[in-house]
Design brief:
mainly alpha; 2 strands; two-stranded parallel ribbon
């Protein structure tokens, strides 16, 4: 993997301009960063005027979007929010008119209900438009109150 990244950097002529690489949290990325650093050090040592700014693992920047995704997933898990696939299955059963006992009894946690509602609304353009109008109306009503 380090060789492929180095080849891309060389092709673009930016190997000595590289400061950081943004990556997800896959463990093989740390190995790749170390290997890439060694390869670039060897390449830079050919010409003593070359100064490499990339420092390998210390130059690794974790992807903020990935980190936020991991945090949100952990929060939802701790809130027992259930999975998206379960929420989608509930929406499917509601669409087909075959709801299970759990759905009929309403024993879901609030967060589970919100997830199902969000999927239910997003699955149909008419529901999306109705939701959007409702939100706009409520926002205007709130602004009048404030």
């Amino acid at each position: 993997m380090a060789e492929a990244v180095q080849n891309c950097l060389n092709e673009l002529g930016v190997e000595l301009k590289l400061l950081t690489i943004t990556e997800d949290n896959a463990s093989n990325n740390v190995t790749m960063m170390s290997a890439l650093h060694q390869r670039l050090l060897e390449q830079a040592s050919i010409n003593p005027t070359n100064k490499l700014r990339f420092e390998g693992v210390p130059s690794l920047v974790r992807c903020l979007a990935h980190i936020i995704d991991l945090i949100v997933k952990e929060i939802l898990k701790n809130l027992k929010a259930d999975s998206i696939s379960n929420a989608e299955a509930i929406c499917d059963s509601m669409s087909s008119g075959t709801t299970n006992d759990e759905v009929r009894s309403g024993t879901f946690l609030v967060i589970q209900k919100v997830r199902v509602l969000a999927i239910w609304i997003s699955r149909h353009s008419g529901r999306k438009q109705t939701w959007k109008r409702s939100c706009q109306f409520n926002l205007r009503s709130f602004q009048i109150l404030v």
